[in-house]
Amino acid sequence: MEVRRITISIAGRNYPLNVPAAEEETLRKVGKQIEVMIKDFEQNFDVRDKQDALAMCALKLGTNAEVSVITNEKNINASNERLMKINQLLEELEK
Description:
With 95 residues, this protein is α+β, with helices and mostly antiparallel strands. It has 2 helices and 2 strands; from the N terminus they run ββαα. It has helices at 24-44, 50-94; strands at residues 3-10, 13-20. The protein is elongated.
């Protein structure tokens, strides 16, 4: 597995990282998203401190991640219920 050394800039600081080549694009994309979120918080919520903006980013990203987990769990449960109904119908057809 190829590892690349990249630098991600967030809130005016550079963070050197060693990352698998397959993850480089994702990390760069997330870094840009965080930069956009910081600017949004600074402009729309009068946040002047970078640490406050980063904390707000962390809360927003964490909330989004948790909502995704809950949504995925609901989708999995709904799919399982449908599969069980299909299985029951198939078993009835076999009789």
